[in-house]
């Protein structure tokens, strides 16, 4: 998948050499990246939380090391993310920032300075950006407010400004709105909210090229065919509406939470693979779909166990490689889906 138009890639991390982490500095992990990936994305290091110790400074050391590595390896890099539109994932200082007597002006200055500085620093080394991440409330479909957006008079202002600023500083880059609305039945409100946001972008002339579909899949039971059948038509209706507005698509954070699947691994792994294959067969059928990125190559370092441990206490198996760096059936499923196109 390295050389084709549609690339396969993964999130990766920074760690000091010798640390056991999903990082390019870990030779076992780097070997997976170098063998499989044409495009990488820093899992955390480009977020405000990592880059911005305070309102005045930027800490680019980790990002620079990651970009240097990717360039040396001839791999492309995506940028994640210029604005994660959730109070929880902005730095505490930004959420309690004193916007002074002209809050809108100060908030705009803070946001545009951030985006300009990060985009200038990375320059053409990053050609695709998750400009805004997760701004839609899955429960209501409305937009989530953060301190910056409140100071500007509402989330529409901060989100639109982020995209306009990004376009001004990287006219050739792909600008992405990235979110986790899924094909699950519980995501209908979320999907509707995302469609409304995308329609608004087009109506107001906001420069957004692509919908980033995170693709944190949840299996929800052992009968994969039935789960897929339940979800497919709503999902296609959503995708059809998105591409009808002229958006491109990319898969930005694929992994699988094998919830409701019985142990042992010999049973769980093929079900995860089947679910991944069914999902990718639908997605890869859209000519508007570009790159496919997984959210980490290896279960050993995935966020999934920490975020959502299984009820039975068994480790999650939602990546292409198991904790011992052996390929899982999911890897073969992805390769087969790519090969079929
Ligand atoms: O690096 C610090 C470390 O110095 C500190 O000691 C430790 C104590 O909490 O925290 C470390 O930072 C953690 C960071 O991951 C790196 O491990 C943060 O606390 C932790 O919140 C952070 O979690 C990340 C999460 O986003 C929030 O930024 C996950 O790794 C990352 O996989 C996850 O990724 C998100 C995407 O950005 C957006 N889509 C959903 C996806 C999964 O939640």
From TrEMBL:
**What catalytic reaction does the record list?**
Endohydrolysis of (1->4)-beta-D-xylosidic linkages in xylans
Is Hydrolase among the key words of this record?
Answer: yes
UniProt keyword annotation of Signal present: yes
The molecule here is called Beta-xylanase
Q: Which family does it belong to?
A: Belongs to the glycosyl hydrolase 10 (cellulase F) family.
Q: What is its EC number?
A: 3.2.1.8
- Annotated organism of origin: Hephaestia caeni
Q: Which domain of life is it from?
A: Bacteria
Q: Where is the GH10 domain?
A: 18-337
Q: Which GO terms describe its molecular function?
A: endo-1,4-beta-xylanase activity
Record-linked PROSITE patterns: GH10_2
Q: Name one Pfam family in it.
A: Glyco_hydro_10
Gene Ontology process terms (BP): xylan catabolic process
- Name the keywords, alphabetized: Carbohydrate metabolism, Glycosidase, Hydrolase, Polysaccharide degradation, Signal, Xylan degradation
Q: What is the lineage of its organism?
A: Bacteria, Pseudomonadati, Pseudomonadota, Alphaproteobacteria, Sphingomonadales
